[in-house]
Amino acid sequence: MFDIPLNLILGQMVLGVVNGVFYAILSLGLAIIFGLLGVINFAHGVFFMLGAYCAYMLLNLLGLGYWEALILSPLIVGALGIFVEIFLIRFLYKLDHLYGLLLTMGLALLAEGLVRILFGPQGIPYSIPESLRGAYNLGFMFLPVYRAWVVVAGVILCLATWLIIERTPLGAKLRAATDNPQLVQAFGINVPIMLTLTYAAGVALAAFGGVMAAPIISVDPSMGTTIVIVVFAVVVIGGMGSILGSIVTGLGLGVLEGFTKAVFPEAASTVIFVAMAIVLVARPRGLFGKMA
């Protein structure tokens, strides 16, 4: 364990940042939906998966490349999110969180089953765009250009989302509509539409992450289920509903996971859950969660 080359440790930590970006993007969407709508969206991983499949279909049916898919897929999945919120989610706002969890879990199982029927259970490759091929020589490793792009784009997206919610009048209206919808409605703001668009934005973030993940991992029906369990742990550690907590914790746990892969690979799949257990004991509301 102590004879591991430093290059290997640094390389795994850099690759861990890439995973951390996906954790941050997905947990950010979850935190937005829970923090502003009060719904535990277990179907979030499905929207991540649908984003990847949308990119695949846009390529094979319409001949659209990666960059077009990166714009259109989140919009398509966001439109689906509008449908889900209007006809299902909005009836749960005044109910216990457990009802939202059960409903979205059912949606996740249904959507994954439909995708398996339509596309089969096997993974489907999605090629890296020509403009993002190659690698950077970091000295201790060769970092693929595409993975570097994922890190830069993901961090910018997360910070921009945080700024919009925490530092703009729109974000203030969203938070106010959650805390006191009757008062906000009295000022002429259409609260139901705001909540619908908030849910759509949250699932569109997941779809954006799915498109970016498609060239790295094979596009398959279980890709969302695999990652969403880890993402829920990230949200719990960061603090349920904490936007900043989701970003910082997602990136940090990605690095921790990468470090563990280098020094103790057997524990890499469980280190995040061990961290979650420790945080829950020491600070039940999470690292960035507000204390009651």
Structure commentary:
The structure is a single chain. The protein is mainly alpha-helical. It has a single domain, classed as ABC transporter involved in vitamin B12 uptake, BtuC (Orthogonal Bundle), CATH 1.10.3470. The N and C termini lie far apart (42 Å).
What integer is the average pLDDT?
A: 90
Strand order of the largest sheet: 1-2
Number of domains: 1
Low-confidence stretches: none
Number of helices: 11
Which assembly state applies to the chains in this document?
single chain
Sheet of most strands: 2 strands, antiparallel
**What share of residues is helical?**
over 70%
- Which CATH first-tier class would you pick? Mainly Alpha
SS-based class: mainly alpha
Q: Any idea what the CATH architecture is? A: Orthogonal Bundle
CA-based shape: globular
**Topology, number of strands:** 2
Query: Radius of gyration from the CA trace?
Result: 19 Å
Strand residue percentage: under 5%
* Sequence of secondary-structure elements: HHHHEEHHHHHHH
Alpha-carbon distance between the termini? 42 Å
